[in-house]
């Protein structure tokens, strides 16, 4: 017999839309989940109101990590912004580098060399793999499968080795700059990358067996956190969260940038729009990124410059203008709105990260009537990085 709570005792909605919650009545209890630093959603906090073990209201609280990126950038020269944009999304910093660099290039009239576009695309897919591996470990760990988190961390560390070999750093690379990239591929990089990709594929097979074929994991995730596709546009749902509901949104295909128009792929989609479907779409999208990296390394021009000539960055002034650059990160559509006024500083920077809509408005709606034990699993399934919210 499945337990069904008596929702007749739940708070009623007032005329202004708020809930009639009287904590003094003894029916309700206020709990806080987070912040804890580790994990995908660990840098934010949820103020939960529960009736028994079921959530009846949730409020999101952020501001526990990096904050104020946009204003920090408006007080720095264009080149000084690169150490800042990396911190907006720590597990996938390269996408911020690309969006910001592409915005600067468009306003400054700079055309990167062809080979640098191939290397940029390679870096973005490497970062996508890192982000998805962190997600898989977080999703599994939130529901008690700690061994999967250990496996995904192991193979993610192998990809970090490739990043260190290419850029000199493991996390914050600052490798994509206006005009191209800081350097070319090192000798033997393609062979070592292929070895890494094969190990990731092998480990993903184990993860599929232990996580996605696990009856307990299925029972806890199938049907949990269902997102009605009718909410996708009003709530700004993009990326795997939308594709898991059957909507094939992918900027890489819909509005190709860099060299994505030269690659053969189709967006990965699901149908059920629940926690299990979102996790499975990301697992399959990770496999797609492995295939894209192989296509990139096979099709990349053998020789050529990787950096265009740019002005002296210490005295760089960009003509007045504005632009919006978008792309597809591991969590959905990502965009940079940049305004210049002819000075040596950005006049206005605005970052459109998918975490803001997914982790605040959408999460607060989905979490109502969810059991306390499933809150972490639901949060992680939306794959959000709180620094994007605190930008």
Strand order of the largest sheet: 1-2-3
Radius of gyration: 22 Å
Kindly state the number of beta strands: 8
- Kindly report the average pLDDT value: 89
Find the structural class using helix and strand composition. Answer: alpha+beta
Summed up, the helix count is 12
Name of the level-1 CATH class: Mainly Alpha
In helices, the fraction of residues equals: 40-55%
Q: Report, as a whole number of angstroms, the end-to-end distance.
A: 47 Å
Describe the main β-sheet briefly: 3 strands, antiparallel
CATH superfamily name? Cytochrome-c3 Hydrogenase, chain B
Describe it.
There is one protein chain. By secondary structure, the protein is an alpha+beta fold. Helix content is 40%, strand content 13%. It has a single domain, classed as Cytochrome-c3 Hydrogenase, chain B. Helix 4 packs antiparallel against helix 10. The N and C termini lie far apart (47 Å).
Quick recap:
The protein has 391 residues and is an alpha+beta fold. It has twelve helices and eight strands.
């Amino acid at each position: 017999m499945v337990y069904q709570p008596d929702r007749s005792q739940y708070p009623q909605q007032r005329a202004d839309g708020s809930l009639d919650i009287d904590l003094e009545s003894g029916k309700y209890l206020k709990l806080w989940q987070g912040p804890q630093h580790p994990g995908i959603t660990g840098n934010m906090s949820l103020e939960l109101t529960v009736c028994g073990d079921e959530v009846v209201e949730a409020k999101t609280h952020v501001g526990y990590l990096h904050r104020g990126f946009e204003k920090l950038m408006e007080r720095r020269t264009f080149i000084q912004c690169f150490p800042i944009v990396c911190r907006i999304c720590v597990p996938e910093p390269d996408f911020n580098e690309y969006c910001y660099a592409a915005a600067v290039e468009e306003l400054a009239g700079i055309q990167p060399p062809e080979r640098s576009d191939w290397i940029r695309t390679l870096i973005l897919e490497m970062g996508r793999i890192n982000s998805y591996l962190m997600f898989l470990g977080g999703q599994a760990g939130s529901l008690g499968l700690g061994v999967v988190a250990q496996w995904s961390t192991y193979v993610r560390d192998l990809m970090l080795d490739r990043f260190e070999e290419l850029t000199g750093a493991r996390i914050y690379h600052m490798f994509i700059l206006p005009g191209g990239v800081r350097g070319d591929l090192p000798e033997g990089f393609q062979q070592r990358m292929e070895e890494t990709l094969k190990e990731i594929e092998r480990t993903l097979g184990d993860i599929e067996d232990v996580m996605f074929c696990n009856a307990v994991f299925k029972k806890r995730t199938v049907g949990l956190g269902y997102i009605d596709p009718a909410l996708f546009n009003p709530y700004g749902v993009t990326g795997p969260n939308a594709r898991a509901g059957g909507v094939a949104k992918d900027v890489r295909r819909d509005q190709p940038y860099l060299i994505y128009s030269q690659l053969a792929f189709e967006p990965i989609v699901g149908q059920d729009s629940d926690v299990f479907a979102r996790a499975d779409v990301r697992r399959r999208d990770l496999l797609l990124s492995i295939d894209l990296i192989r296509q990139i390394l096979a099709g990349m021009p053998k020789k050529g410059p990787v950096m265009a000539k740019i002005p002296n960055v210490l005295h760089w002034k960009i003509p007045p203008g504005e632009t919006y650059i978008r792309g597809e990160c591991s969590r959905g559509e990502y965009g940079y709105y940049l305004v210049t006024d002819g000075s040596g500083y950005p006049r206005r920077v605005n970052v459109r990260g998918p975490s803001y809509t997914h982790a605040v408005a959408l999460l607060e709606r989905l979490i109502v009537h969810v059991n306390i034990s499933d809150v972490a699993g639901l949060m992680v399934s939306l794959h959000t990085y709180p620094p994007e919210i605190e930008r």
